[in-house]
């Protein structure tokens, strides 16, 4: 039975089905933590080592489970630390609730200890953002926060002044208009549905196309069957932006895999040649990889009307749930008999997969990062949950970790932040005990939130952290060279022995240095009954080559070498070797 305001909040969270909350304590949330303590049998608190990780863990939890992720932080600095993770939720449209403390209610604005108006600070990041004013406001705030986070797929924030958290439950100051128990704990799924005339028009456009391309993002993750049927009917290859990597298995005959700099060459060909584009649940940002304006007719299926036409001109926009819309659309589509466009894409994928296999099985030293992810892929369970950080690791993961079975995959999509990979895995392990949880991270990204290795140990989360150790901020090194034409600067990292760090935290630590050891050590580490860090010491000069390098990129690269890029000849040798292997 609720005694204080915080109890009302915790009990309402329980009524909404919240079972886990990630966070870090502080005097600004002492009252709330007392309620967490008295409800600990029903609501699990996962203590992380940095509030940013709490927010990322909540995003990972939301992304993988589809349920709201919840995090808590103290007033002032704790709340400020949450922000990057909350922006990740905002940018990738995930329902996350952040609960923070504020200073005493009657000292707000008086420069008192930790007097940061987090509700003002969080205005941009949140879709719902309120100060809890007392016991009769608390439940209304929780209900509105959770409903809004689900409905608008974003961040809700409630901040509770330190003393109000401990105010006794009472109706004494209830306002006349605030009818007791008027607020409901029910979130309605979106019921928007386009009318049948629009769906007919969309079908006509698709039926008139002879080279149909399908771009299926995170909004299509729940319609694998419908997307496969669509691809089969229209003979259209499916391209998957990274957040939609699990829409289809990577070896499905219908997909050409990823898009963008870390995508595949066959996807580039499909986009270059298509005459019709069907976009499903995607706001993939890099428009230069989409068909050129005027090249293709476009049907966009999208839950958020405001995003229709955001990246590409649209002939018909169908707003609503993609599964429901595809179910209505499929019976109206004519079968493309020859399926020539799809067959060509399938042939191209054979060559691409062969090339990836070549690059992933090199036995030369230094060890190539692709050899690690290529081998890891073969060893993963068919229901593994894999997270990646931003960096060259995203390229190695995108290209080598193949979705199959019920595997799930994510990374920080639109925000593209570093350091999310390990905390996403904490969220995944909390949501899915018993499933294999793995993250592939860079040495730069891991160092940012390395304390979370201790969190894995504390909660016995058997997460396997694969750190691709190149002692450099690899992605930026290559961007400086290939996109800017500059020699690398400010990107070298002081080497760290991550296996020893893991051991110091109480996890297992493994080191891989030679290609011939990769499989054996990965098998041993994956079998380890607990958290483990596997550091793979790799070639820092292995470039994350785009699916098709452009002349401009080659010129910029040459410029960087001429302007003094270190190890220029060794990099050229690596690239030349890759090219030679492509042609022989
Ligand atoms: C928080 C944050 N800071 C900086 C960046 C810019 N950035 C993107 S990738 C990257 C390098 C990542 O290095 P590392 O984790 O070592 O992975 P690698 O690229 O070497 O595989 C940087 C600095 C970012 N995306 N996020």
TrEMBL record:
Residues 4-117 form the Thiamine pyrophosphate enzyme N-terminal TPP-binding domain. This is Thiamine pyrophosphate-binding protein. Pfam families: TPP_enzyme_C (PF02775), TPP_enzyme_M (PF00205), TPP_enzyme_N (PF02776). GO terms for biological process: carboxylic acid metabolic process. Residues 199-329 form the Thiamine pyrophosphate enzyme central domain. It comes from Edaphobacter paludis. Keywords: Thiamine pyrophosphate. Belongs to the TPP enzyme family. GO terms for molecular function: catalytic activity; magnesium ion binding; thiamine pyrophosphate binding. Residues 389-535 form the Thiamine pyrophosphate enzyme TPP-binding domain. The keyword DNA-binding does not apply. Residues 169-192 are annotated as: Disordered.
């Amino acid at each position: 039975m609720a005694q204080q305001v915080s109890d009302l909040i915790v009990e309402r969270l329980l009524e909404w089905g919240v079972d886990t909350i990630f966070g870090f304590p502080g005097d600004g949330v002492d009252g709330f933590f007392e309620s967490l303590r008295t409800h600990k049998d029903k609501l699990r608190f996962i203590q992380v080592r940095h509030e940013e990780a709490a927010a990322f863990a909540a995003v990972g939890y939301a992304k993988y489970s589809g349920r709201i992720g919840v995090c808590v932080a103290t007033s002032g600095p704790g709340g400020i630390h949450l922000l990057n993770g909350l922006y990740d939720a905002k940018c990738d449209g995930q329902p996350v609730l952040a609960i923070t403390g504020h200073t005493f209610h009657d000292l707000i604005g008086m420069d008192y200890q930790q007097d940061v108006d987090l509700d003002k600070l969080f205005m941009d990041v949140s879709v719902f953002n309120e100060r809890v004013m007392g016991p009769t406001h608390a439940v209304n705030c929780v209900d509105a926060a959770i409903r809004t986070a689900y409905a608008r797929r974003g961040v809700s924030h409630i901040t509770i002044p330190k003393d109000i958290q401990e105010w006794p439950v009472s109706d004494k100051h209830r306002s006349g208009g605030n009818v007791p128990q008027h607020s409901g704990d029910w979130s309605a799924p979106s019921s928007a549905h386009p009318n049948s005339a629009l769906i007919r028009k969309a079908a006509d456009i698709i039926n008139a196309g002879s080279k149909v391309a399908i771009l299926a993002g995170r909004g299509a993750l729940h319609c694998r069957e419908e997307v496969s049927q669509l691809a089969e009917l229209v003979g259209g290859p499916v391209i998957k932006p990274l957040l939609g990597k699990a829409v289809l298995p990577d070896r499905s005959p219908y997909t050409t895999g990823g898009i963008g700099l870390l995508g595949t060459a066959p996807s580039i060909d499909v986009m270059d040649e298509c005459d019709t584009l069907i976009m499903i649940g995607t706001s993939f940002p890099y428009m230069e990889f989409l068909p050129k304006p005027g090249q293709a007719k476009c049907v966009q299926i999208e839950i958020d009307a405001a995003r229709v036409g955001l990246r590409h001109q649209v002939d018909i926009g169908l707003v609503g749930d993609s599964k429901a819309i595809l179910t209505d659309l499929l019976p109206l589509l004519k079968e493309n008999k020859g399926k020539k466009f799809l067959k060509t894409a399938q042939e191209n994928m054979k060559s691409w997969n062969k090339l990836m296999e070549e690059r992933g099985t090199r036995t030369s030293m230094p060890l190539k990062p692709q050899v690690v992810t290529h081998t890891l892929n073969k060893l993963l369970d068919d229901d593994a949950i894999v997270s990646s950080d931003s960096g060259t690791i995203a390229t190695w993961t995108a290209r080598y970790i193949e979705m199959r079975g019920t595997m799930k995959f994510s990374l920080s999509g639109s925000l593209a932040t570093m350091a999310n990979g390990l905390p996403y895995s904490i969220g995944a392990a909390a949501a899915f005990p018993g499933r294999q949880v793995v993250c592939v991270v860079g040495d730069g990204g891991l160092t940012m939130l390395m304390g979370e290795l201790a969190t894995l140990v504390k909660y016995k989360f058997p997460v396997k952290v694969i750190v691709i150790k190149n002692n450099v901020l690899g992605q930026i090194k290559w961007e400086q060279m290939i996109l800017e034409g500059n020699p690398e600067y400010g990107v070298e990292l002081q080497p760290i022995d991550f296996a020893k760090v893991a051991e110091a935290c109480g996890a297992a630590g493994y080191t891989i240095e030679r290609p011939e050891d990769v499989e054996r050590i990965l098998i041993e580490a994956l079998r380890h009954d607990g958290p483990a860090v596997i550091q793979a010491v790799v070639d820092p000069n292995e470039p994350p080559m785009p699916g098709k390098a452009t002349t401009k990129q080659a010129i910029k690269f040459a410029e960087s070498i001429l302007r003094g890029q270190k190890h220029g000849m060794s990099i050229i040798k690596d690239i030349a070797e890759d090219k030679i292997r492509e042609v022989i």
